[in-house]
């Protein structure tokens, strides 16, 4: 039985995700490196700002951090108690999930890789897609704790499978983003009105989450709101590519995508949203996608 | 005022599109190279099977043929009368649209490039997306004639703009298809269940018409039903690429996509559906996407 | 028998090529759009600066112009006399060679596409490689006139074959250039001394004209001397790619090369040498190849 | 002072390399997993077939094995004595060189990564290019022992630098190979005689070791003699790519090259020479490069 839950990492996503937990749990501990943010969260949502030592002794510990490196660092310094389940919502590295699952298993605890999709709006509304790898029984036990912020909550395989699905999802996002940039620039260069073209394509077989959401809400309006940072997308495409390479798979299109996104990342302004990757392409074509 | 309409080209798409016209027009002429098909259509839908000379003298002439070459050949041999509007639903070449529009204008007639998206099911249901380039007034006049088989009917620009949007739409379809094949193969090679992954991705930012429809309905079930032939997709990606090259645009991702689809086309079995392009990739990875 | 020769186009290449002709011919006419250059050539090398009308009436007419468009324009305005041979040393378009050969044949004259390789130093020394397409007998007759500036003079096929070989040669140059830039940057990023690496690679299987000449003489020394302009290399890679596309060949590596060179071209400073294409890559990697 | 040398790994390269050592050393030990080959070498060249325990106690130990994994396995099982220098001629992984150098340093010994280029003919003639990473003093001491089979012997940097240069060399070989295949196929599809084209390109800026040697000696003659196996080239391109990725460098052209070579590797017949990678491309184009 779950008596206590903790949430570690109150970034743009984690802050909103943790806010849903008090609906289901009497005691919700939160911790953040910048501790003021934890205190702010406690004041606003009725959670408790605690030390990292306390947080890691909860029955269920959530983490949502920039990369697997930070997660590993905390887990190995502050291992959870026996019987605990660590639910890591970071967009992490599958290999790291395997390692952490094995490390926690040796202590009688469990590690679930449970990355989320849906961005800040999904975190806000508690409708995130959660793709989960790891022990099936631990998944069953943790399900109710995930539910407050989850829409679709899906067990996709062994440890690392959740991270793998997230990485491939984001790789497809990246591929669709760049292909869309090239395609719409081609249309504009040929005198086609982009809004009319977008309406047609969104009613046709070329549509994607990029044409339905990213292009109209971030690019055509030139807003590029920072909700998912470009360096994180570059990291995720790298994770997906590493998965292919470990399996000795040729992936020409995904490799090129990763190269283009990484180039965009290296040449972008600080604090760029992932959608701003198209600005690199605009600097080549001298055509704004608007 | 439109008194007569004709439909030229009763292939998988045209046959179904023309079937909707009698709802709105008393007289609907149809013509097909294999004339038996025209007679069958007449018997079934109350249209009239006529000669090509008669068909091309209608007020509004629709054509839906394999490529712009066939359309040009008919138009130049059998030019329509003054005041007529030729609505070409072929997935054609923008340059050809410009040429035909100019040729018909010299005769007091109009040419609209009006390719459709939605496949045979959309043609069946009369819900096709129709993206139209050419004279705005001709578009207004032709609108009612297009409505019986159209869902979204959109004027997107000058002559050629309709073909351009269609070509780019299909290029995006091709890019998404190949990226999805690489991505899902990567997941399978890493032990992830593809159906669970698909459910997650379709609730996430990596989704596209490929993940929502093509992958479950054509690939994962190993059916690859022939409704849109691979050589036609290869042709369309070539049209999109030519548009980029004429504009001197670099399009690394679309170029690679076109190369991959063309390779799939060259090495595929006859009568392959476009979705069977992934079989080339499967021959590389030795992993079936299922 | 050849009594008179003319040279049209005294650019960096043509000026030096024409300078060798007086060794073999009593009368050498020269013409240049900027006529002062023709007069300067006449004064320096004992040629005769003449009008375009006169130049095009020689027994053998050489041309060396930026693109096939300029050549076509002159040939069609000032067609040569019957029996003449037009030797076009431009890096031109194969299709144009076929057209010009047919146009001249109708007038009893011949067109040879005869692009050259070897850069200004080869033109200076009269050791250019000349790759020639067109009528074999015309090639035999023109051979002696080409010899003064040619090293290897080779008949490679029908009209257009010379241009095709040149375009593919330059495409390989472009591919080797970009691959070398990526490879040497990778070495530098890993702490390897580039000059030592270069010495090893030039004694190994990875060597090319780029590692043997372009890298040490233009890039590592940061000189990028303008002897072959980047826009011309971009044009040539476009010609090579068009040849592949007309043959429906997939060429993933050459397509990507052309896209990268075209991007470099679009984003380069004016008057950039072809070797300066690597500066685009340097702007991505933030590492200078030196 | 070097009193004894040993050579571990008598494959196609090692067998010939070790044959030169008796010129300079009184005592040359050899070891091979298939020991009969060591005995054959001893009988033919006056070396001594010894146990692995004996071989690894020489003053200078050479190794030439398929991959770094085999080298690591032997070194860690049979570490050399203090003062010894291990010269690893494998085409290995830079990271492994760093690890082995550190491991041996802790024992008072040295590890030099010293991969070779020049193929079996260079090994036969003792003219191999040897690119060496590691401690500069160890390099000086080992120089004389390398000389019998070396032509150019070059210190290129710290541990791993030798492997890095070799990997990048082979990546450039791979890129040039594939680009050449696409380019020459394009020429053939356009009716150009490949031997004439080759002669021109080898006298021009597009030439490389591929056009000068691989194409005429292995491909155009359809012999594809097995001297450097395709799986090893695929491995080497993977090493080069990993170097780029560790440095976060985008390398679009090298990535595509690696994907194509890996695809060729996955789909090739057993015992294919690296040059047979072009057969994959031939299966796409349906055109033999001959």
Layout: helices, strands, pairs:
Four copies of one chain form a homotetramer.
Chain A: E1 4-8, H1 12-18, E2 27-31, H2 35-45, E3 48-49, H3 52-55, E4 60-63, H4 68-77, E5 85-88, H5 94-105, E6 110-113, E7 116-117, H6 119-125, E8 128-133, H7 136-146, E9 150-157, H8 161-189, H9 194-201, H10 209-219, H11 230-246, H12 252-267, H13 278-285
Parallel strand pairs in A: 1-2, 1-4, 2-3, 4-5, 5-6, 8-9
Antiparallel strand pairs in A: 7-8
Helix pairs in contact in A: 1-6, 4-5, 8-10, 8-11, 8-12, 8-13, 11-12
Task: Give a verbal description of the structure.
Chains A, B, C, D: Keywords: NAD, Oxidoreductase. Chains A, B, C, D: Belongs to the HIBADH-related family. 4 copies of one chain form a homotetramer. Chain A has about 290 residues and is an alpha/beta fold. Chain A folds into 2 domains: about 5-155, NAD(P)-binding Rossmann-like Domain (Rossmann fold, 3-Layer(aba) Sandwich); about 165-285, Orthogonal Bundle (N-(1-d-carboxylethyl)-l-norvaline Dehydrogenase, domain 2), CATH 1.10.1040.10. Helix content of chain A is about 50%, strand content about 15%. Chain A is built from 13 helices and 9 strands. Chain A has helices at about 10-20, 35-45, 50-55, 70-75, 95-105, 120-125, 135-145, 160-190, 195-200, 210-220, 230-245, 250-265, 280-285, and strands spanning about 5-10, 25-30, 50, 60-65, 85-90, 110-115, 115, 130-135, 150-155. Chain A has a 6-stranded parallel sheet. In chain A, helix 8 packs across helix 11 (about 230-245), helix 8 (about 160-190) runs parallel beside helix 13 and helix 11 (about 230-245) packs antiparallel against helix 12 (about 250-265). The longest helix of chain A has 29 residues, at about 160-190. Chain A is globular, with a radius of gyration of 20 Å. The N and C termini of chain A lie far apart (about 55 Å). The relative contact order of chain A is 0.10. At the A-B interface, strand 9, helix 8, helix 9, helix 10 and helix 11 of A face strand 9, helix 8, helix 9, helix 10 and helix 11 of B.
